[in-house]
Amino acid sequence: MNLRLVTSCCLVSAVLAVTGCEDGRENPPDASVVVANVAPGFQELGFRREQTSARTLAFRDAQINQWDVDTYDFFIDERGLFVGDTPRFWTFRQELVADTDYTFVLTEVAGEVQPVVIANPEPTATAAQIAALHAAPGLPAMDLYLEAPGVGIAGATRRGTFNVQGQIAAQTLPGGEYELWLTEAGNPANVLLSSATITLAAATTSTFVVVPETGSGTTRLSVLMLQNGSAVIYDRNVTGELRVINAAEDTVPRDVAINGVFSPPLFSAAPFAEPTAYAPVALGTQTLNVTPVGNPGVLELEMQISPTPAQRITVMFTGPAGALLYAAIADDGRRIHGEAKVNFMNAATQFLAVDFVLTATGADPTNVPPVTVLGVPGSPFSYSFFPPGTYDLYLRETTTGALLSGPFVASTP
Question: Is the pLDDT of residue 10 over 70?
Fold first, then answer.
């Protein structure tokens, strides 16, 4: 390549760039855009601006963008293990103007993604700005309150009312510490959520999005707070929940306690092979104790659990009397379009590992890869995902390939 030609081209480009600046042409100002996914029926959503690369957002995930002011087409597509070659797409067009903060909330209505645009003027340097969106179908219209800590709902002033897919328009408050309250519209006695202390920063827009939990935990709703990042707000009184499955080899009932409290235990005489009901447990690290019924002096299992807000936990214990083993999982009941979600658990201590095999009805399981392979309790386990339908379930010894049992009919909605 001719170096003189390259140099000349660079000089021409530089001259053109300087000329452009002298003519007064400048890059357009940026607009701040937060994109948040609160569509619970999708494993993930892809989001892109025109021909740019798509970004993936999990449920309750949020991303912050800075884009030139202009009019753009935006595209959303569903992501999942079994979407295949025909994912659903949604699109919308939005003009971005200067001195405006935007929040694009990807909500879900009747199984479809419905984007909602929240546009607010940039906040002043001395005040905090708030806005809100109700994105929880199936829940009632709500009143929103924000007050200094200690005021309580009885002395609170309503900041606005919104129904599903409705917004509370932007308003300003002094920066500082607040408590958030959501109540049934017109009925402050019916409190749906009361938060711990949150901070509203001056010169910042805080957007509150009411999110449907749809079986993912112990509560019906949470609030996604978008403020230079994102945070999930639960009711200040929310607990975790725990259930146990007694799979001890001797098939005898067991008492299960938390932190050594056996008067009464959390679960009294938990029966063999039957999951208990969920029971509330406090948040944070605690000790779970398992003993023979009525005999707390004989400790057969001691383990740590650490429930987080609104989380459900299942603990299964098995093995010989006096030396029980355990496995635990954080439950997630959120349903995903087009996917079945199953948690497999292994209490068979006589095998090093067991294959869980799903086949089409009547198919030969011999050479079918397992959905999951589980060792004896104490090894981790998690949910498996596959297309909804009716299957034959077989158990197969991992080391020998010998069928242990099956088929059992497994039907997933």
Answer: no
